[in-house]
# Entry
Amino acid sequence: MYTFDAMKAGIHPEMHPKAKTNCSTCGAVFEIPSVVTAQTVESCRLCHPIYTGKQQKEAKGGRIERFRKRMAAGKKAEKK
# Structure
């Protein structure tokens, strides 16, 4: 743990060791150290797609996907 004895007095914000952080997406409440007593975040580690594994692997309708559709349509036309 860090000691704050060497800091200048009166110029640093007060540290709240158990500040409430609310997630506006899933409603989870965390107590974390912060300089504000309460804060709201859009997504937290419980609901963010990267942390939950529900991340989209490939964007639908991107350049590669459109190219593949055109090539598949061209191959179908050649077979007929």
